[in-house]
Amino acid sequence: MSVRDAAWRSWGALAVLQAAVAAACALFAALLAACLPSPYFHWLQPGLPLALAMLLRLGRRVWPGLALGLLWLAWGEPGLLLAERLLLAASGLAAALFSAYLPPRRSRPFFRQADVLAFLAGPVALGSLLAALGRVFVLLPAYRHQLPELAWAFARVWLGDAVLLLTLAPILLLAGRTERSCGGGACWRETSLVAGATLLLAALVCCGLPGRGGHYAILPYLFIMPLLWLAFRSQLLLAHALALAIVALALAGIRFETGALAIAPAIDESLLNVALLGLVQSVTLLVFGALLEERRQVERNLLQANQSLEAKVGERTSQLAESEARLRLMADAAPFPLAMNRLAGGELIYANERAEELFGTHLHPSRALRVQDFYVNPQEREEVAQALRLNGRVADREVKLKNAQGREFWALISCSVVKSDKVWYAINGINDISERKRLEQNLRDANASLRRKVEEIERLQQGLRDQALRDPLTGLFNRRHLDDILPRVLDHMLALHRDVAVLMVDADHFKRVNDTYGHRCGDAVLTALGAYLSDHFRSGDIVCRYGGEEFFVLLPGASLDAAFAKAQQLCEAVRAMEIDALGHTLSVTLSIGLALCPLHGEDAESVVLAADEALYLAKQQGRDRVCVAAPIQMLS
């Protein structure tokens, strides 16, 4: 085959590659279009995750095919001018190229914390920002007199592109990686069971529950626990794929206006909930996966260091055993530093060649050398001499020595006492263990680092447990925590023969606030009320968000009169309070139902029912008041 034919074949292969890349980009975007609701899909750069993955996997040679695919996607958007289509394609390609050649330049940058942070700051934050800028310039003519709406549109586009990168890029980059199996078919059955159960529960939560204005929006975040479990079992790709499936189920629920994240008809808020869910899941998996990979790498390094250290210790021990036999022969060919000195004064009378090399000096009759001159700590020399006098030998003792030039090093010495012509001598075998001591220090440092990593993981787990007991809007305890703690508090106070007052608090006509000013304004009012309730009561009182605009306050040890006075003060204070909610100054009033344990019931269900009936009575009587529940009618 001639050079010309080879060149044509090379160009043909490259053209086929570019066409395949362009087709893959178009097919990828079509699949996303089937999942994302229109017209929001056209506000994003759907080919950005695949473009980034291809650039990292195949290199910059595929950029013409990516440019063609992105241009085809831009050409398919209706109502755009030629310059606007070119701008969209150029911004998407620039974002992919910019993200692909930011450090770290690895095909799978998810196995070190520094790499994860670089990925979040580079491709996710900056790359999606660059892609969003192209869309904003296209939208600029339509929003040129509506800058706040343009800023909000820019934020949505930026967040959408960032979530696309976070949820899809890890799967595309991790695909094909051989993950460590946890061993045997039982592990795969366990993994399949967890993944299948999680997927089934996600379908029920994201598509089966009634939306109820986002009251169940916290439930999908609980699926982070099985995702972390899969990541911990070295199934990181499966964890990311399951996270993507949960996001897809949430989008399906929004499309049919059902599920925990659906806030019908506010599709913008529903999509924001899904985007936040995808953001939290992906960032948590990336950070947790990097922590686990670093920990496993440390464990592998520790294992290698231990094996190396054991090999070195075994080798040195063998050498010492051999040197003791040769010490008796006083052979100049001894394979280790060997020296002999008078036990009484410490004068050196013999040193082999290796000993002279180790200590950087030569033994000469005209120059007297003593053992004490080579000990860093004189007290250590006295301890060795005392041990030789008592036991006749010292075996494998670690001491710190120095050579004639003053260089300090750790040595392992073995000494034996012999007698010749009524004079006691000490035969010393010396072994330099500076390298072993360095390895031991490295091992201690690695163990300390591992302990810090484990403590950090435990802190993260504790934070997740705390989040499960808190209302995400107000920061107060949620109803789940109330259902858990209320029976225990009542039982404890009844055992002490003390009263417990409960307040069922409801914001009057709160639906008008939502209908007039919007749900975000209503959320701001609830947040302000929650903060005021938290500050108004004692530190020993328990304030919970019961649901919607209802709050529940538990007052252990409070009498009926004290609780009634406290509730009256709360009504008066809230009535006079002005709440700044998204630029609106609002005033609300409270209706409060008061019940006392054991006056109105001795169990949680009875007390809550009594307080709820008192609240209903307060609303019947005109709201903005406190009503006390009727006492239990005792049977004669």
UniProtKB/TrEMBL annotation:
Gene3D superfamilies: 3.30.70.270, PAS domain. Its EC number is 2.7.7.65. It is a multi-pass membrane protein. The keyword Transmembrane applies. Keywords: Cell membrane, Coiled coil, Membrane, Nucleotidyltransferase, Transferase, Transmembrane, Transmembrane helix. Residues 498-631 form the GGDEF domain. Residues 395-445 form the PAC domain. It catalyses: 2 GTP = 3',3'-c-di-GMP + 2 diphosphate. It is found in: Cell membrane. One of its GO terms (molecular function) is diguanylate cyclase activity. InterPro entries: Diguanylate_Cyclase, GGDEF_dom, MASE1, Nucleotide_cyclase, PAS, PAS-assoc_C, PAS-like_dom_sf, Rev_trsase/Diguanyl_cyclase. The chain crosses the membrane at residues 12-34, 86-104, 116-138, 150-173, 193-211, 270-292. Residues 436-467 form a coiled coil. It holds the Pfam family PAS_9. NCBIfam families: GGDEF, sensory_box. This is diguanylate cyclase. It comes from Chromobacterium amazonense.
